[in-house]
Amino acid sequence: WSEDDEVRIAVAHDITERKRSEALQNALYGISEAAHSAKDLLGLFQQVHQIIGELLPTISFSVALYDEQNDELSFPYPAEQPPATAADTPLNATTLSAQVIRSGNTLLLPKACQAQNDASHSWLGVPLRSHRGVIGALLVSSASTRYSEREQELLQFVSTQVATAIERQQMLSRLQFMAQYDQLTQLPNRELLRDRLHTALARARRQKSQVALLFLDLDKFKQVNDSLGHAAGDQLLQGVAQRIQLCLREADTVARFAGDEFVVLLEDFHSADHASVVAEKIRQSLNHPFELCGQSQTILPSIGIALYPQHAQDEQQLLHHADNAMYRAKQKGGNRAHSALEQE
User: What pTM does this model have?
Assistant: First the structure.
């Protein structure tokens, strides 16, 4: 208060830029945290959606990813978003995201009319760039706010951090896949099989149900490698894996145990002969010739069957009995299934 002038004097500072800078820093910190805490890409996208929603007015938020190796676009977020079709209107999240990725340029449509609902929307899309190039796109839209270059700069600023977070999550997913799956057949490996078997037995104890293991070995597989080469052997293993999968339910597990050995885990069944029926179905499927290097090759399986609780009480014993039963099948000439019960 100035007594002389009889006025109140105040000094105001415009803190708009400071608030904007603080918001950006908080967003970058939040995205970094999300990159380390999210369990998968969907979890990451959900957190990024929330963070960007606090920076920009949005009624929709979409993520598109580009697989350069296969030249394919995918639209993983939101999960229910359908792929684009020829009948789609030109202006939707799917087609606009694809446009951003293909061009590598930012998309800013301050106001655009969507023919499907005549609602006026503002669209903003930015490419997700990494050291590998454009790996995807972020797209937001608003019905109430007209996006400007200011919002464009803001979304571009955080997009680099988002791209880094996505690549980190993809790398972790690849490492996890490599640790749990066989690279040749894409089947679960021995360690993942043991985890699933442990879980299946725990569930069977609680529910007083049965579990079955089929231990499968390919008779004379080494002859294929020796006569046609390892590439043909690899092709055969891939074909065997595919045929076994076609014989199973979605809830069943088939794993590549080692070399030309496969193990099938069956649970949630009531028929006493279920395991034998599945084993016979696999045997008949594998009895059909494979085409390898222009030649027709027949590979025959030996299959051992072991059941919980009839033969064993834990995973190690169950695997042991199934393995022994497989060797008994092989000793009897192969191309057959042998149950651990028959050893008594």
Answer: 0.71
